[in-house]
Structures are given as C-alpha cells and as structure tokens.
Write a structure and sequence with these properties.
Length: about 140
C-alpha cells in the first residue's frame, strides 16, 4: 500500500491501449491536503481500485475507448500502518459509435489529459530539466 499511496501523492497515472487507442486515468486522489504543508491530520488518500471501460465499436471494429474510475468505490488508504486487502475490479460497457475506423484517432486531438507537445530545456550549470507546456 505504501507504493500506491506514494503514487497517488505524486499524481501518478496509468495509460492503457486497446487497438492502439490510448486511455488514461489517475491511481487515486487526495482530499484536504495542504499545498504547502502536505498531508495533514484531516487529509485523506484514496485509491481507485475499480475501472470502468467503455468500448465503442463500428462494423465489428473498435473505434473508441475510454476508462473511468469510480468515486463510489474509492478505498481510503490514508492509514497504511494497519493491514488491508484491496480488491481490484473492472467493468466493460460496449457501445455502437457512428465513427469510421479510419477516423478513430480524431477523437484524441482535443484530449488534454496529456499535453500534445512540450519543450525540454536542459541547463548543465544548474543541472535541471525545465518542462514547458505551450498554451493552445
């Protein structure tokens, strides 16, 4: 659980592919954390152990895919000192989409989960990497 908690606090996300269509989601969420002081007495760390996939098809081909986490099924992992068991589950919903297979990547053009481009500047004198996300 320690690794999951660290991943949630470091804003880790997952990426999955189905038929070359990407899907992204966060491991969990933090509530009540102070931006300066970090985890406090009233803050909570939650893990999302359930994923709901929506798979869109047209003419027996996958043309759309998305994944959503479930607020109702989030698990409180704030206190990792006590032993706990977390069951990971998933569900799948199949839908018909009026989208051609050749146009299936067009739905990702406006996706802002991951930036389309970024610039990397490396400074040898201060040994840091600066990531700049251009504004659209």
């Amino acid at each position: 659980m320690q690794k999951f908690k660290e991943g949630v606090h470091d804003s880790y996300y997952f990426e999955m592919l189905i038929e070359d269509l990407p899907m992204w989601g966060y491991l969990g969420e933090i509530e009540g954390e102070d931006i300066i002081m970090g985890e406090g007495e009233n803050s909570r760390t939650y893990l999302y152990p359930h994923l709901h996939f929506t798979i869109g098809t047209n003419q027996n081909k996958i043309v759309k895919a998305s994944v959503h986490t479930s607020e109702a099924r989030k698990v409180d992992i704030t206190d990792i000192t006590s032993s706990m068991t977390v069951h990971f589950t998933y569900s799948v919903e199949w839908t018909f989409e009026n989208l051609k297979h050749s146009d299936r990547h067009d739905t990702y053009v406006d996706n802002h989960f991951v930036p389309r481009q970024f610039n990397v500047q490396v400074s040898r004198s201060t040994k840091y990497i600066h990531l700049h996300y251009p504004q659209n």
